[in-house]
Amino acid sequence: MLTAVLDYVGVATFAMVSTVGARDRGLDPVSSALLATVAGVGGGTLRDLLLDRPVFWLAAPGYLYVCAGAAALVWFVGAGPRRRATLLVLDASGISAFAVVGALIAREEGVVAPVAVVMGILTATCGGILRDVLAGERAVLVRKDVYVTAALLSAVAFVVAVEAGLPRVPAAVGGAVLGTVLRVLAITLGWRMPAPPRWG
Amino acid sequence: MLTAVLDYVGVATFAMVSTVGARDRGLDPVSSALLATVAGVGGGTLRDLLLDRPVFWLAAPGYLYVCAGAAALVWFVGAGPRRRATLLVLDASGISAFAVVGALIAREEGVVAPVAVVMGILTATCGGILRDVLAGERAVLVRKDVYVTAALLSAVAFVVAVEAGLPRVPAAVGGAVLGTVLRVLAITLGWRMPAPPRWG
Amino acid sequence: MLTAVLDYVGVATFAMVSTVGARDRGLDPVSSALLATVAGVGGGTLRDLLLDRPVFWLAAPGYLYVCAGAAALVWFVGAGPRRRATLLVLDASGISAFAVVGALIAREEGVVAPVAVVMGILTATCGGILRDVLAGERAVLVRKDVYVTAALLSAVAFVVAVEAGLPRVPAAVGGAVLGTVLRVLAITLGWRMPAPPRWG
User: Fold this and answer.
1) Which tens digits make up the pLDDT trace of A1-40?
2) Interval B184-193 mean pLDDT
C-alpha cells in the first residue's frame, strides 16, 4: 500500500515532467508517450530486474495508463510557466518517493542496508537518465543539479530511520520529504554541486 | 515456429540496417558486428528480461550467427542506393514483425492485452534505439518518423484480431503487414508525425 | 575465487578510470561515484541478468565500497599524467579480466562456446559504454580504438584454451594477459581499427 502510493506519485510526476521536455523538443504524441512511460516506470523496472522480482507494471497496467494519460494531458493541454514551477516540485517529490520505495523494497527482499541505498538511488534516477539518453538530451548527471544527491539523502534517511527502529510509514514520509525539500531549496536558491578540486 | 520465423526476419534485417549505418560512420568490423547484434537481439532481450523468460538467443546461437553474418556481409560487400531502398522496406517489416512477436509472447505469458501492446512496442523499437544511443547517433525518437507508431499499429492490430477470435497466424501476418505498409508509405510519401500544438 | 579476483580487478580499475573522465568534465562527487559504480558493475550486472543469475553485487556490497572508494580517491586526490598512463594499462587489464570472467561464468551456466564469447564481450564493454552514454561522452565504439577487439581476443583465447583441455586458471590468466597486451600495444603504437572499404 505504502509502496503503491509512493510509486504512483513518482510515476505520474515523472511522466508529466518528461512530456513537458518532449513537447518542448517538438516530439509527436506517440514518441512522447513512450518517453513518458520510460521515465515513469524505467527506474522501478531496473530495480525489479536487479532484485529478480516480477516487474511491477506487468500485473498492474494502471501504471501504463497513468503514463499515457499524463503524456496526453501535457501534450494536448500544455504547461505554462506557472504549471512548470508546480511540476518541478512534483518532480523533486517523485525522485524522493522513488528513492524511498527503492530502498524499502530492497530491504524487504533481504538486501543489506548500503546496497538498499544504492537501489534507492538507481530507482530514483535511472528513469530520468534513461529518458534523457533516449531523447538525445544532455544527461542530468553532467549538469550540476542537486539530483543524485537528493535521492541519496532520501534513501539514507529512510534506511537509517528504519534501522533506528522507526516504523516504516513515518520513516518513508520523512525520507521523501527531506529529499524533496533539499532539491526544491537547491533549485530555488541556485545551489550547485561542487566542482572537483584542481589537481595537486 | 511462428515466433521463430518472425524473430529471424527481424533480427537479420535489423543487423543489416544497423551495419549500413555503422559503415557510413566508418566503424570497424568488430564494433559494427557488436552494434548489429545489439540492434538485432536488443529488443527481444529486453522483452525476455521483463517477462522473466530465458533470453531467446542464449540457447539458440543461430541468432548471433545471423547478426555476425549480416554485419560481415554488409561491411565487406556494401550496400548501394538500390539496396538501401530494399533495406528500408526490410527494416519496416522487421519493426512490425518484432511488434507482433513481442505482443504474442507477452500474451502467451499471461499478460493483459494493453501491457502486451506495450511489450510489442518495446520489442520493436528498443533494439534500434539502443543501437542509436550506443553509436552516438541522433535517436530515432526525436526525428518525426512514423516509427513507434508503426510498431503500435502492428501490436494493436494483432492483439485486437486475436481477442476477436482470429487464429494466431493470420492475425500475426496481418498485423505485421499493416505496420510495414504504414511505415513504407510514410517514408515514400514523406508523412511526418504531428508536432505539438502551441501552448494555450 | 578466480572470478572474484578478476571481478575486483575489473571493478576497481573501471571505477578509477571512469572517475578520471568524470573529474575532467567537472562532475560533482556524488554523480562521479554513481558513474564509477555504473562503469564498475554495469557489465557484470548485464551478464548476470542475461544469464538469470543473482546480480553479483547484491550479496557482496564490497563491490560498491570499492566503486565509491575508488571514485572518492580519484576525485579528491586526482590523477596526474603519470598516473594516467598507469590507469590506461589498468583499464586494459580490466577489460580483459571482465571478458574472461564473463565467458567463464557463461560456460559454467551451460552456455555454448560462441554465446559465451559474446557474453564475455558484453561483460567487458557494456560498463564502459553505459558510462559514456550516461555522461554524454562520445561512445568508445565510434572511436577507432582496439577496444571491443581486445575483449574479443581475451574471450576467444580463454574459451579455446579451456575447450582444448587447459585448466581454468592458466586459461583465464593467459586470455586476460593476451587482451591486455593487445590493447596496451595498440595504444602505445597508435594502432587503429580498419575503416570499411569503399563501396564496390
Assistant:
1) 778 888 888 899 999 989 988 888 888 899 899 999 999 9
2) 89
**In Å, how far from its chain's centre is CA B69?**
18
Output the pLDDT for position A134. Answer: 79
Name chain C contacts of B130, Cβ cutoff 8 Å: none
Residue B64: count other Cβ atoms within 10 Å of its Cβ.
22
User: pLDDT (tens digit, 9 = 90+) per residue, C23-34?
Assistant: 888 888 998 999
User: Which residues does chain C have within 8 Å of residue A112's beta carbon, measured at their own beta carbons?
Assistant: 61
pTM value?
0.92
pLDDT above 70 covers a percentage of chain B that reads 96
Neighbours of B129 (CB within 10 A): 24
Instruction: Give the pLDDT mean for B46-70.
Output: 95
> Among C50, C139, C199, whose Cβ lies nearest the Cβ of B134?
C139
Rounded to whole angstroms, how far apart are CA atoms C42 and C50? 12
* pLDDT tens profile B61-89: 999 999 999 999 999 987 777 777 788 88
Chain B and chain C share a number of CB contacts under 8 A equal to: 74
Q: How far apart are CA C138 and CA B176, in angstroms?
A: 36
Cα–Cα distance for residue pair B46/B126, rounded to 1 Å: 8
User: Whose grid coordinates read 577496444?
Assistant: C147
Its ipTM equals 0.89
Q: Do A31 and B193 touch (CB under 8 A)?
A: yes
DSSP symbols for C7-21: HHHHHHHHHHHHHHH
DSSP code at position C199 = P
Record the cell numbers describing residue C25, joined without a space.
568534465
Q: Do B118 and A54 touch (CB under 8 A)?
A: no
pLDDT value of residue B1: 76
pLDDT category at B199 given cuts 50, 70, 90 is: low
Rounded to an integer, the average pLDDT of C118-136 is 87
Identify the burial level of B164 via C-beta atoms within 10 angstroms of its C-beta, where 0-12 means exposed, 13-18 middle and 19 or more buried: exposed
Q: Which residues of B touch A80 (CB under 8 A)?
A: 199-200
Mean pLDDT calculated for residue range A82-101 = 87
Sign of the Cα torsion B150, B153, B158, B159 reads positive
DSSP string, B114-151: HHHHHHHHHHHHHHHHHHHHHTTPPPGGGS--S-HHHH
Q: Is the CB of residue B55 less than 8 Å from the CB of residue B142? A: no
Cβ–Cβ below 8 Å for A35 and B141:
yes
The pLDDT of residue A200 is above 60: no
Category of C110 on φ-ψ map: left (φ > 0), alpha (ψ -120 to 50) or beta: left
Nine-digit cell at A135?
Answer: 531523447
Q: How many CB pairs under 8 A join A and C?
A: 74
